[in-house]
Write a structure and sequence with these properties.
The protein has about 475 residues and is mostly helical. It has helices at about 15-20, 35-45, 65-80, 90-115, 130, 140-155, 170-185, 190-195, 215, 250-255, 285-290, 350-365, 370-380, 395-410, 415-425, 425-430, 450-455; strands at about 230-235, 300-305, 305-310, 315, 330, 345-350.
């Protein structure tokens, strides 16, 4: 449904792409055709207004209420554990699935707000004291909550699913590998564990290499569920966008300017089959685009000009800041004359695993190994690039800088950029370099005022801000 707190994580409008990509170097400060202040605030890394968001807000995003979804999943865990009509094998498989989904909810909440109070014991549901205990757990505690669910899922979720799009043990391994890297700086042994997970995937995965531009072609409908895909949002090509219809891919709607034309002034077709979008809420920052190497095939995921029905002329890079805010995201290609495109939306790809493996290898040994270099080069070569230059492998620091940039290019608008920047201790440094208008007001989004007040009424202290100890900017 629409409105209220019904903002799923995996939608372009208000999900991980809004919360973890637009407020990074990948997205531009959105200030053209502005009719949504919270969108502008997010692109400016100005999170302060989200403190005043209401419990059932329809004027902005309130993900805090998703702690209730964690409780709901905990209830399902309890029901499954107590079920008498399932075999032990069936029970553990279903528990593996639901605990993976529960930990994903906690994972995104952690990276949006920092650690949040959650109920993971089914016996505490309905317990007034437990439900009013609105106190942040420590980062270590929240990290362990997520780890325990993911470890259970890797051992119990199905290895394969007959129905594509259902969670699997390999998807749990992917999520666990990413989680180990995120928290390795403060959790002993996590980098080694991330490294060891690389050899534990059971699927036959490889980089997609078909088509004229394999990077772009992998996201097209014909290549849904290719060998690179570990998990994706399974799109129904017949979806109409209605609440009771199938899942739909509406990235194009949020990526195109509202005055974008399907034809230019001479009547020639443009790449935009269905014409205008809804205001280009998602866009690509020009300075980020300029970091691509000249021959990088991944540049095709960004379009740098369009024909405007407002100006009856082409809008180009020279018009950034006056006629549009940033370039057009074309990663999920427009294939049909519809607002909704038929290509699946990836959540886990083998390219990401290769880059995470390289990172884990270097972090655990503090040495740039040939295995790490080779893994990054596989991704670069698929993009039409030569191997990493010698300067990028000469030191751990140089390699990590190159790896962070490689992740930015490869995983453009896949909902992980802010998380990556924080893991590499570069979020404040990179964003504040754009100037005061994009300097983050805090490392994570502050908890809404109403929740802090609710905690106070129960005699608890719910700290509104969370900052990691190694944050590269000022702490709140």
């Amino acid at each position: 449904g629409d409105g209220g707190t019904n903002y799923p994580w995996y939608i372009p409008a208000n999900g991980i792409y809004h919360g973890f990509d637009t407020c990074t170097d990948q997205g531009a400060e959105w200030n053209i055709a502005n009719n949504r202040q919270f969108w502008t605030d997010m692109t400016r890394c100005y999170f302060e207004n989200l403190k005043t968001i209401s419990k059932n807000s329809d004027s902005g995003v309130n993900h805090f209420e998703k702690i209730r979804d964690v409780t709901r999943m905990t209830k399902i865990v309890g029901d499954l554990e107590n079920a008498t009509v399932l075999t032990d094998i069936q029970k553990r498989a279903l528990l593996g699935e639901v605990r993976l989904l529960r930990c994903l909810m906690m994972y995104y909440l952690l990276h949006y707000y920092g650690p949040l109070p959650v109920i993971l014991d089914p016996s505490l549901i309905g317990n007034t004291e437990a439900e009013s205990n609105l106190v942040r757990p420590s980062l270590t505690e929240m990290t362990e909550y997520i780890t325990e669910d993911l470890l259970f899922a890797t051992k119990n979720a199905p290895e394969i699913q007959n129905e594509k799009g259902r969670v699997t043990a390999d998807y749990a391994r992917f999520c666990l590998m990413r989680h180990f890297l995120n928290e390795g700086a403060h959790m002993d042994g996590y980098y080694d564990k991330a490294y060891n997970l690389y050899s534990q995937f059971n699927g036959n995965y490889s980089l997609y290499v078909g088509g004229e531009n394999p990077y772009i072609d992998q996201f097209k409908q014909a290549n849904n569920w290719n060998n690179e895909v570990i998990m994706a949002l399974s799109i129904d090509p017949k979806a109409t966008g209605g609440n009771t219809a199938g899942s739909f891919n509406c990235f194009m709607v949020y990526s195109l300017p509202k005055d974008c034309s399907a034809k230019d002034g001479d009547g020639n077709p443009t790449p935009f089959l269905n014409g205008k979008g809804w205001g280009q809420y998602l866009n690509v920052n020009k300075p980020f685009y300029e970091t691509y190497e000249e021959n990088d095939l991944r540049k095709a995921s960004v379009i740098t000009s369009y024909y405007s029905t407002s100006y009856n002329s082409w809008v180009t890079s020279e018009d950034i800041g006056s006629k549009w805010s940033g370039f057009i995201l074309n990663k999920y290609p427009i294939e049909v004359n519809s607002q909704y495109q038929p290509g699946n939306i990836p959540l886990a790809r083998w390219a990401d695993v290769l880059l995470m493996y390289a990172e884990a290898d270097v972090r655990k040994s503090n040495t740039v190994t040939q295995d790490a270099i080779n893994s990054v080069n596989l991704v670069r070569n698929r993009a039409g690039l030569d191997n990493l230059p010698t300067a990028s492998t000469a030191s751990v620091s140089a390699f990590m800088d190159a790896l962070l940039m490689e992740r930015g290019h490869e995983l453009l608008f896949e909902g992980c950029r802010k998380i990556d920047l924080i893991r590499f201790n570069k979020y404040y440094t990179i964003m504040s370099a754009f100037g005061e208008s994009r300097t983050p007001t805090s490392q994570y989004v502050p908890i809404p005022d109403y929740a802090v007040q609710m905690a106070s009424q129960s005699g608890k202290t719910l700290n509104q801000y969370f900052t990691r100890e190694d944050y590269d900017g000022p702490k709140k």
